[in-house]
Structures are given as C-alpha cells and as structure tokens.
UniProtKB/TrEMBL annotation:
Keywords for the protein's UniProt record, in alphabetical order: Cell membrane, Membrane, Transmembrane, Transmembrane helix
Protein name per its UniProtKB record: Type II secretion system F family protein
Membrane topology: Multi-pass membrane protein
Superkingdom, taxonomy of origin: Bacteria
Transmembrane segments: 160-186, 206-229, 250-273, 368-389
Gene source species: Helicobacter ibis
Subcellular localization(s) per the UniProt record: Cell membrane
InterPro entries assigned to the protein according to its UniProt record, in alphabetical order: GspF/PilC, T2SS_GspF_dom, T2SS_GspF_sf
Family, similarity comment: Belongs to the GSP F family.
Principal localisation: membrane
Domain Type II secretion system protein GspF: 70-184, 273-387
Length: 397
C-alpha cells in the first residue's frame, strides 16, 4: 500500500509518501523517522482492490465477539485488536483493523477510528454511544445482535431468490444443448428423405436459428439495455424510486422484499433510538441501512414532519407504507416507553412475517418451477422423439 503522510516539522506542514505492506509496518517506519502524522491517507493498487473480498457477516460477528470477550477479560484495547488481527483471514477486514490500531496509536477516539476504517454507520454510531457512556460492552452486544439478524434475514432472502435463479440457469443450459447439438441431426435426416419435421421440432429449430444467427446481437442488446437502465438508475432519483416501488409490488417476491427492508429499518432504529441517539441521527442511520429507494424517500420525510410539530408516531403513520397491524401498534403507544415497546414488537412481528413470507414463496416457487421444467422437458422430448415416430411413414412416402 501507498501511504500519504501529512506532518508538521519546523513549524511547517510537510507531506511524504511511504510504501509499506501494512499499517503495522507504517507505524514502525514513522517511529524510526520520528514523524508524528497529522493526517494519513491510503491508496491501494487496483489489483488489491479487486482481489480483496468484502468481509462476510460471520467474519464481522467473530471479530466483535473477540473484542467483547477481550473487554470482559479487561485486556488493553490495542492488545485485543492485535489478537483479533492475528485471527482474521479476510484481507479487507485486516486492513480495517489495522486502520483502527493506527488511529488509536495516533491518539484518535475509538469512534473516529471506526469511521476512518469505513465500518457501517450503525456500527460507528453504537461505538460512539458506548465510548461516550462508558458502556462499550452493551454497544458491542447490540452490534452483534444486529449482525446476527442481518445474516439470518439475508440468508432467507438468498434462499428465496437463489432457487428459481438456479433452476432457470439449468433450464437454459439444457435447452441450448438440445437445440444446438441434438436437433440438427434430425433436421439433416429429414432433409435427406424430403420429409417434414413436426411443429415441436420446427419451433425448437427456430429457437436454435435465433441463438446461432442472432445470439450475439440479442446478448448485446440485453447488455445495452442493462447498461442504460443502470445509468438511469444511478443518475435519476425518479427511476430508482419507480423501480424500487415496482419491486415491492411483485407477486409474492414483493412481500419478501418489503419485510426484509422493514426489518432492517426497525432493527437499526430500535437500537439507536433506545440508546438515546438523537432522532435525526437515529433516522439517518436506519434509513441508510435500506436498499429500497422508494422506502428511503418515504422515510426521509419523517424528520421533516417531526420538525413541523407532528409527533414521531404521527409522522411514521403519515407515510402510508405500513401494514394494518404496524399502524395499530404505532397508534397504541401513548408515551416514550410505550413507543419503544411498540417498535420492538413491530420488529419481532416483521421478523416472523419475513420468515413466513420467504417460506411461502419457496413453497409456491418449487411446484411452479417443477411445472415449468416439466413443460420444457415435454417440449424438448416431443421435438426429439416425434421425428423418430414419424420416420417410418415418411420413408414409406
């Protein structure tokens, strides 16, 4: 890695570029040269950026568990992080831990070290709360709980999406293999005896013709359409919100996406709001955890509504994005404690709904995909075997 160091010497600001393998090596180099950095910026090579995989949720959980156990044993924080670094295999997570260590050695606050190491807003906020309150263990427990729930919900979502995606890929591969390598043999056979192919075989051969003659063109068109949609999605708020809104309206899938997003929002909001984080910060952290732009745009109006004099409950109810039970629970809260209890209950109910909707989706998708796969197999079988059954009559003619 390349480090750009800004430091003060003889009353003047100076800069220096240092190449080191790690933050630990940089710390040793700075100590030898007696440089006290004011600012440290890093730059990784393009190769390193691509080969280093993002740490998994499980690796993150293990890291915070290690820190939690170290704090319970009353070990020095630098020692805890060094031991955690030794037990971490993911390169990106190693760099993040090294950044924290470097920041601590430079006298920065723990919260600022986590921010500079580019951890999520929720994690940084909980570290800040724990550091200021002197109860870092409780904050670490909240972080671990959040990561566990995130891992569980992501697993449910992937399970619901990966099965149909895998079946579709298998069907496409089987279809292409049959139409490209098997059917042409029958076509040449019938052409040699001047016979007519059955409709099932003709339709498959037509698909083969499209793939072989226009396959590249079709693929290019799809890629261009994908790039155009992606560009518009990134540039246009309207497109992002519209596509996000339509994703929530998809049959069966929409309910899974909705509860997946709502669980993320209420989970982050519950812990930050309960920990006495300022309302604006709690909402900002919770909204940033969402992926759905439509829900983000709706929830962004909550703080504006609160500033206009509406209560938090009224502001959430005005959004008109919640199910009837959620609305009822929000209305039932009469005071601060009741509101927090309502949010906790909503969170638990939405978790149950997410699990239930994901299981329902799988129970519907499996027979549907089997039915579609059966139709494809029937089409392929008729396209292959009908010419064989009609071959004797074609020969007699």
């Amino acid at each position: 890695m390349i480090f750009y160091i800004t430091y003060k010497k003889d009353g003047k600001l100076k800069s220096k570029k240092i190449k080191c393998d790690s933050f630990e090596a940089l710390d040793i180099t700075l100590s030898k040269e007696q440089i006290k950095p004011i600012k440290i910026e890093t730059k990784e090579s393009i190769f390193n950026r691509f080969i280093k995989l993002k740490p998994s949720t499980k690796e993150m959980i293990n890291m915070f568990y290690h820190i939690k156990l170290g704090l319970k044993a009353k070990l020095p924080f630098n020692k805890i992080l060094s031991d955690t670094l030794d037990g971490t295999k993911n390169k990106k997570l190693q760099l993040q831990i090294q950044r924290i260590l470097l920041g601590l050695n430079a006298g920065k606050s723990l919260h600022m070290c986590f921010v500079e190491a580019k951890f999520s807003d929720f994690i940084c906020s909980m570290i800040d709360i724990g550091e200021k309150s002197g109860n870092l263990l409780s904050s670490l427990e909240f972080i671990i709980l959040d990561l566990k729930n995130k891992a569980k919900n992501t697993k449910l979502l992937k399970k619901a999406i990966s099965y149909p995606a895998f079946v579709c890929v298998v069907m496409a591969c089987v279809f292409l293999a049959i139409t490209i390598f098997v059917l042409p043999q029958f076509e040449s056979l019938f052409l040699s005896i001047k016979g007519d192919l059955p409709f099932a075989s003709v339709s498959l051969l037509f698909m083969r013709f499209l793939v072989l003659e226009y396959g590249i063109l079709i693929a290019v068109i799809f890629i261009i359409i994908y790039i155009i949609i992606k560009i518009f999605y990134q540039k246009s708020c309207f497109v992002r919100e519209r596509l996000s809104y339509l994703s929530l309206k998809l049959p069966y899938f929409g309910a899974v996406f909705y509860y997946y997003e709502s669980v993320k929002f209420f989970l982050s909001f519950y812990w930050t709001y309960k920990s006495k984080v300022k309302l604006e910060a709690a909402l900002s952290i919770s909204i940033q955890s969402l992926n759905n732009e439509y829900l983000k745009s709706k929830l962004n109006s909550v703080y504006i509504s609160v500033n206009k004099g509406f209560s938090l409950q009224e502001s959430l109810l005005k959004l008109n994005i919640w199910d009837s039970l959620t609305k009822q629970l929000l209305k039932s809260s009469k005071d601060e404690d009741g509101f927090i209890e309502s949010i906790e209950l909503i969170l638990e109910l939405h978790k149950d709904e997410l699990e239930s909707k994901a299981e329902s989706l799988l129970s519907i998708i499996e027979p549907f995909m089997i039915f579609v796969l059966g139709l494809l197999v029937l089409w392929l079988a008729l396209g292959v075997f009908l010419p064989l059954w009609e071959l004797p009559s074609q020969i007699q003619i």
